[in-house]
């Protein structure tokens, strides 16, 4: 580690089902407003699940520059790019004001599934007498596809577009590890600054679970089926939970060495104190056991030089799945005792690779305001989930530290510890 000093957060941007921009997002959280509703893409279908967290009133033209770039941006790329633009605005960082060789971008991403109607004509060329003929694809169907189609759906293109626009020539990477992608992007960015390889990093992620192609491909085995009450469907740690809820969203943060942030007079929102990572083999039920969570929590505490009692709140993965919530709750209780726990997915569902960044934004703002947002739909405590869930209304907190947790479906776990500016 170099003498770069603390790594601090000086800006954040969110594009989510509960609001676009930090103010709208935070207002929804404090008012307990859910972003989960009937899915527009599913209402005319016979899909068993027709609810999710969709972003409302989003127009990429408000953020994307140059405008012609929209031609090679699917929706996920547009929301990720927009979250980055909002972050830079929030941080007061103007293009050209940072040494480009010391400015990098690392984002969490995932497979972007093509919209069905975009390939419909091409598929029709491969159907003969009601039967799909894959051998006809190369000869005929490909001629109907947009020549730059592939660029619209490459997971790494979000980080590329941002770096090109902002002339960020420093470290650039894309991490594709599902729900832990965003936190791992934050961790990697912190490491670059600590090693002296960069002064400024834009980190975060974007993802979607509500694309119709993805829904049909991945299935609904672990989803809540409360179609008649979407706002009450995602119930982390509640005894009546019946699965997770799908959503879409993007979040980003501007990370700087303290020295760099102070030299430009930036307002510091929080510090990144430490982090932990682990893996536990998934043995069934689409989730790992509690040991992966435990190791990540313990590693994050050791990295931050903190004791369990120093943590003001846990921002839990809290997916709402039966086994997943139980294992996470066991680990939190074992490692941190009766610490307050909030679960942001109750507001907007699982956002794929964007989920960690959008959720972490809640803890950054909680540290800045001394207010922990409530978990929605926690009404019936589950003895199998022995955690102190913040519910009913937001809780005040004078202990301004947070531990943010995420775990992927394949067993990777990431934890990030945040602290106050000073």
Compact summary:
The model has no long low-confidence stretch (mean pLDDT 94). The protein is an alpha/beta fold and 422 residues long.
Tags for this model:
21% strand, 12 helices, alpha/beta, single chain, twelve-stranded mixed sheet, two-stranded antiparallel sheet, Peroxisomal Thiolase, Chain A, domain 1, 422 residues, globular
Structure in words:
This protein is 30% helix and 21% strand. It is α/β, with parallel strands linked by helices and 422 residues long. It has 2 domains: 7-113 and 153-419, Thiolase/Chalcone synthase (Peroxisomal Thiolase, Chain A, domain 1); 119-144, no CATH class. The strands form 4 sheets. Strands 1, 2, 5, 8, 9, 10, 11, 12, 13, 15, 17 and 18 form a 12-stranded mixed beta sheet that branches.
Low-confidence stretches: none
The helicity comes to 25-40%
- CATH class of the largest domain equals Alpha Beta
Oligomer: single chain
- Radius of gyration (Å): 21 Å
- The CATH architecture category of the largest domain equals 3-Layer(aba) Sandwich
Average predicted confidence as pLDDT: 94
Taken in chain order, the helices and strands follow as EEHEEHEHEEHHEHEHEHEHEHEHHEEEEE
How many strands?
A: 18
- The 3D shape can be described as globular
Largest sheet: 12 strands, mixed
The number of domains: 2
Question: Helix tally?
Answer: 12
Termini separation comes to 20 Å
């Amino acid at each position: 580690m170099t003498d770069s000093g603390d790594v601090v957060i000086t800006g954040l941007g969110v594009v989510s089902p509960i609001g676009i921009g930090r103010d709208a997002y935070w207002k929804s959280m404090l008012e307990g407003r859910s972003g989960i509703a009937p899915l527009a893409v599913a209402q005319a279908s016979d899909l068993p699940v027709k609810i999710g967290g969709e972003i409302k009133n989003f127009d990429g033209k408000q953020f994307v520059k140059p405008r012609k770039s929209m031609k090679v941006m699917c929706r996920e790329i547009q929301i990720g790019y927009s979250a980055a633009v909002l972050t830079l605005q929030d941080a007061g960082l103007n293009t050209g004001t940072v040494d480009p060789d010391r400015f990098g971008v690392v984002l969490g991403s995932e497979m972007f599934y093509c919209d069905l109607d975009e390939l419909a004509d091409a598929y029709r060329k491969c159907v003969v007498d009601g039967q799909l003929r894959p051998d006809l694809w190369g000869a005929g169907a490909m001629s109907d596809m947009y020549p730059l189609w592939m660029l619209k759906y490459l997971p790494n293109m979000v980080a590329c577009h941002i770096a090109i626009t902002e002339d960020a020539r420093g470290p650039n990477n894309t991490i594709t590890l599902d729900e832990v992608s965003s936190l791992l992007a934050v961790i990697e960015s912190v490491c670059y600054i600590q090693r002296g390889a960069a002064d400024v990093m834009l980190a975060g992620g974007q993802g979607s679970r509500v694309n119709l192609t993805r829904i049909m491909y991945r299935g609904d085995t672990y989803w809540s089926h409360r179609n008649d009450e979407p706002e009450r469907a995602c119930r982390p740690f509640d005894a009546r939970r019946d699965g997770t809820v799908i959503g879409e969203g993007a979040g980003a943060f501007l990370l700087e060495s303290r020295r760099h942030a102070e030299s430009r007079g930036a307002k510091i929102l929080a510090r990144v104190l430490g982090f932990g990572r682990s893996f536990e083999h998934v043995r069934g039920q689409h989730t790992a056991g509690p040991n992966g969570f435990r190791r990540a929590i313990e590693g994050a505490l050791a990295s931050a030089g903190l004791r369990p009692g120093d943590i003001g709140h846990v921002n839990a993965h809290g997916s709402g799945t039966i086994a997943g919530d139980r294992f996470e709750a066991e680990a939190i209780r074992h490692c941190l005792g009766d610490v307050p726990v909030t679960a942001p997915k109750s507001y907007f569902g699982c956002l794929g690779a964007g989920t960690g960044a959008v959720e972490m934004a809640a803890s950054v703002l909680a540290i800045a305001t001394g207010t922990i947002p409530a978990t929605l739909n926690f009404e019936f405590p589950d003895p199998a989930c022995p955690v102190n869930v913040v519910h009913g209304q937001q809780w005040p907190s004078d202990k301004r530290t947070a531990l943010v947790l995420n775990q992927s479906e394949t067993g990777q776990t990431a934890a990030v510890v945040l602290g106050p500016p000073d």
